[in-house]
């Protein structure tokens, strides 16, 4: 029993160690990759040690007890086993209460930010969180004051009942609050429109942008929980999930099939993309999904895709680190990430100044630097045998069979994309610095911008026209961020300036992550819908009426999805 305790404690310690990098993300990635590896090794070593100890127990103890009926030692071991079970159950309830407590706090801070019926909702949510705290400490005290779970099982049942009741109440409150949150968002949208006409509202908009940016940056608890549980599963049953020793499936490289590229560190989002694509295609076995993630999420991603049912579709899961050619001597963005200058840029200013400028803050989001985000510029080298590939963001849902895209005549162009300009909006002028002589010489400020998220690439045309070299040329020039400020879109607009083929709008409908007024008809007819913007469907703040279109493809059968409280 002492041994078991030791193991549980070590496990929680490990969980905390791993949980941390999820929050602080890419810029310390290399450091944490080493750290996590070490932590995992230590964990493995420790569990190995205990596995041996357990094996000894079985050899020495169990056979005697199996026949020696009512010896005191067997009674003790049955009781302690029971106690372990009850304690585990107790911890689980505690965790659930803790989870809801943080959720209540998150809602409270959201209510505070958008000044929604100010005091009322704020009071309710802080009250809820306080009640959870109260529940947790009440039962902790009971436990510490000598109540014994084995002899006092009703204590556990009471605890569970109280947490359940509290949670039921909380769900009601959330359901009501979300409606007012959504209408508040419409007001925000209206403010944005006014802003386009009236610059005096600039301040208001900036505050709004900043608060939703904070929300979008924080990875919610369930997502964290899922990644960790999947990773634990991978560590516990390595033999189930490894492909080592097996020859690679020939389909993965078969240019006759339909290939998709999905680059993501979000397990649930990536699985929704693949699920939705598979469910809406007629011949799933002709489709190949190339999922690339980072080293930290590789194990979780492998388990997730091994557990799902994809009707014969082929799925390759790799880590970006597996592509050795992506090193800092070749990839300008990696060189720039590693340069001390940029790190300084990230750390020099204190929060106080950062909050003053939402644009600045946006650039500070490490997401914009993540190499996963820039992989889209290396498709021909990552998939040397393929002629065509469809690039999909992880915040999209596929609603139709997409094979029609492969039949489109690309007319020698490299990138098939949906254009986004209207009137004077979304023109090249808005994405890059036209005061710069090199930009002015090469591009038209009125050129129409297009969207990333669902892009059909002709890889042969790409290789012929040397787009990667073009991209490197400009990305190197932008070292000091004088050509464009942030993200991959300006780099894409520059790279595929004269080699983009506009696609019909219904292929790709955008804005479900920020614009509540997109028409439902347009959404219904779309082949792909895109939750670009900060209000992602997996976040609490996702726009309610658009969420079912996404949750429909969440694999709720998956035991880890269930145990991480995704249904709320
Ligand atoms: C907190 O608990 C008290 C007493 O159990 C209850 O009266 C109150 O309604 C609860 N508050 C919330 C916000 O659930
Ligand atoms: C509870 O009681 C069981 C059986 O009497 C005993 O094995 C266990 O150690 C006790 N646990 C605590 C925390 O007192
Ligand atoms: C970096 O990648 C290039 C090819 O892109 C390769 O020639 C070179 O050897 C790699 N460098 C290292 C250190 O791996
Ligand atoms: C904020 O910026 C100003 C100048 O822009 C600088 O003087 C000040 O030290 C900064 N404050 C912090 C906390 O970094
Ligand atoms: C960026 O700035 C540094 C120093 O300010 C300069 O040495 C370097 O050449 C600049 N890079 C580019 C691409 O202009
Ligand atoms: C735009 O380019 C000009 C010319 O190189 C430069 O002076 C200016 O600082 C750039 N603007 C921004 C916002 O980087």
What key phrases describe this protein's structure?
binds 2-acetamido-2-deoxy-beta-D-glucopyranose; 24 helices; disordered N terminus; alpha/beta; 3-stranded mixed sheet; Spore Coat Polysaccharide Biosynthesis Protein SpsA, Chain A; 56% helix; 7-stranded mixed sheet; transmembrane helix; 2 domains; polygalacturonate 4-alpha-galacturonosyltransferase activity; 568 residues; EC 2.4.1.-
Write a concise synopsis of the structure shown.
Helix content is 56%, strand content 8%. By secondary structure, the chain is an alpha/beta fold.
Written overview of the protein:
This protein has 568 residues and is an alpha/beta fold. It has 2 domains: 113-216; 221-564, Spore Coat Polysaccharide Biosynthesis Protein SpsA, Chain A, CATH 3.90.550. Helix content is 56%, strand content 8%. It contains 24 helices and 10 strands. It has helices spanning 2-24, 29-60, 62-67, 72-113, 118-144, 153-197, 202-217, 221-236, 238-241, 267-279, 295-307, 332-338, 340-348, 351-354, 358-364, 371-374, 379-382, 437-442, 459-465, 467-477, 489-495, 520-525, 548-551, 559-563, and strands spanning 258-263, 287-293, 314-319, 388-392, 396-398, 415-417, 454-458, 500-502, 508-509, 528-530. A 7-stranded mixed beta sheet has the order 3-2-1-4-7-6-8. Strands 5-10-9 form a 3-stranded mixed beta sheet. Helix 4 runs parallel beside helix 6. The longest helix has 45 residues, at 153-197. Mean pLDDT is 76; it is low at 1-29, 43-71, 190-219 and 348-365. The structure holds 2-acetamido-2-deoxy-beta-D-glucopyranose (6 copies). One 2-acetamido-2-deoxy-beta-D-glucopyranose (NAG) binds next to loops.
């Amino acid at each position: 029993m002492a041994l078991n305790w030791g193991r549980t404690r070590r496990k929680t310690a490990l969980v905390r160690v791993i949980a941390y990098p999820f929050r602080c993300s890419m810029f310390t990635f290399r450091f944490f990759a080493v750290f996590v590896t070490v932590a995992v090794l230590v964990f493995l070593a420790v569990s190995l040690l205990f596995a041996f100890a357990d094996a000894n127990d079985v050899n020495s103890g169990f056979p005697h007890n199996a026949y020696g009926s009512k010896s005191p030692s067997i009674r003790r071991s049955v009781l302690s086993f029971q106690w372990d079970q009850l304690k585990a159950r107790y911890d689980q309830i505690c965790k659930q209460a803790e989870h809801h407590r943080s959720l209540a706090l998150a809602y409270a801070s959201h209510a505070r930010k958008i000044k929604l019926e100010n005091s009322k909702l704020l009071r309710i949510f802080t009250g809820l969180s306080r009640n959870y705290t109260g529940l947790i400490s009440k039962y902790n005290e009971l436990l510490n004051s000598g109540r014994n779970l084995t002899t006092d099982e009703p204590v556990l049942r009471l605890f569970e009942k109280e947490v359940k009741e509290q949670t039921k109440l909380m769900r009601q409150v959330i359901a009501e609050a979300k409606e007012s949150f959504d209408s508040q968002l419409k007001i925000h949208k209206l403010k944005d429109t006014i802003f386009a006409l009236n610059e005096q509202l600039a301040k208001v908009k900036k505050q709004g942008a900043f608060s939703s940016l904070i929300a979008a940056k924080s990875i919610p608890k369930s997502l964290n929980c899922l990644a960790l549980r999947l990773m634990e599963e991978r560590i516990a049953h390595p033999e189930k999930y490894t492909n080592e020793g097996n020859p690679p499936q020939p389909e993965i490289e078969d240019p006759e099939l339909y290939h998709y590229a999905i680059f993501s560190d979000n397990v649930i989002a990536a699985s929704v993309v693949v699920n939705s694509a598979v469910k809406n295609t007629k011949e799933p076995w002709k489709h190949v999904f190339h999922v690339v993630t980072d080293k930290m999420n590789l194990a979780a991603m492998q388990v997730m895709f091994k557990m799902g049912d994809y009707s014969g579709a082929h799925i390759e899961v790799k880590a970006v680190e597996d592509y050795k050619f992506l090193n800092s001597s070749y990839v300008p963005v990696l060189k720039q990430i590693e340069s001390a200058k940029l790190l300084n840029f990230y750390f020099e200013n204190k929060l106080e100044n950062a909050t003053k400028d939402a644009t600045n803050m946006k650039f500070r989001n490490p997401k914009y630097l993540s190499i996963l985000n820039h992989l889209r510029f290396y498709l021909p080298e990552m998939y040397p045998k393929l002629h065509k590939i469809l690039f999909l963001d992880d915040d999209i849902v596929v609603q139709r069979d997409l094979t029609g895209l492969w039949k489109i005549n690309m007319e020698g162009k490299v990138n098939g994309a949906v254009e986004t300009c209207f009137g004077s909006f979304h023109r090249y002028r808005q994405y890059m610095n036209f005061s710069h002589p090199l930009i002015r010489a090469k591009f038209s400020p009125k050129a129409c911008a297009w969207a990333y998220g669902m892009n059909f690439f002709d890889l042969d045309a790409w290789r012929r026209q040397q787009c990667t070299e073009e991209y490197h040329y400009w990305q190197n020039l932008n070292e000091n961020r004088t050509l464009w400020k942030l993200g991959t879109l300006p780099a894409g607009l520059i790279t595929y300036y004269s080699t983009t083929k506009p696609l019909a709008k219904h292929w790709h409908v955008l804005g479900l992550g920020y614009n509540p007024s997109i028409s439902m008809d347009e959404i219904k007819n779309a082949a792909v819908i895109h939750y670009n913007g900060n209000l992602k469907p997996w976040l609490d703040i996702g726009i309610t009426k658009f969420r079912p279109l996404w949750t429909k493809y969440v694999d709720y059968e998956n035991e880890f999805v269930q145990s991480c409280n995704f249904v709320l």
